[in-house]
Design goal:
Elements: H1 4-9, H2 12-18, E1 25-28, E2 32-36, E3 44-50, H3 65-84, E4 90-93, E5 109-113
Antiparallel strand pairs: 1-2, 2-3, 3-5, 4-5
Protein name: HIT domain-containing protein
Organism: Polysphondylium violaceum
GO molecular function, one term: catalytic activity
């Protein structure tokens, strides 16, 4: 049986991160790529994909320094991405599981902005 890491690596997002499938990158560095969502819900709707393949938030390990480093770094890069796009307000969303609409087995952070966002979000 494949591990969640192997499933993530072979998912659509995993193949985009590794370059097996081409995609339009808005940003890239050693830890992540950022792409436009193909079904945007706002003028700015990006997906931040860690290069370190993780299936979901629940698969992150508190014992893994690689998980901590990758996810911690990504959280610090988000303001830079927002600045590049010239947006001051935005929402971050992580879908976890089928009922939350996680359609691809690969952890991603949605960065949504470019207009006033409603609350509650669901």
């Amino acid at each position: 049986m494949a591990s969640s890491k192997e499933i993530a690596e072979n998912s659509l997002f995993g193949k985009m991160v590794t370059g097996k499938i081409s995609c339009e990158k808005v940003y890239e560095d050693d830890y992540c790529i950022v792409i436009k969502d193909i079904s945007p819900v706002a003028p700015v709707h990006l997906l931040i994909l860690p290069k370190h393949a993780v299936y979901s938030v629940s698969c992150l390990s508190n014992d893994s320094e690689q998980d901590k480093t990758a996810m911690g770094y990504i959280m610090t890069i988000i303001p830079r991405i927002a600045s590049i796009l010239q947006i001051k307000s935005y929402r971050l969303v992580i879908n976890e599981g089928e009922q939350a609409q996680q359609n691809i087995g690969y952890l991603c952070i949605h960065l949504i902005g470019g207009r006033e966002l409603a609350w509650p979000p669901a």
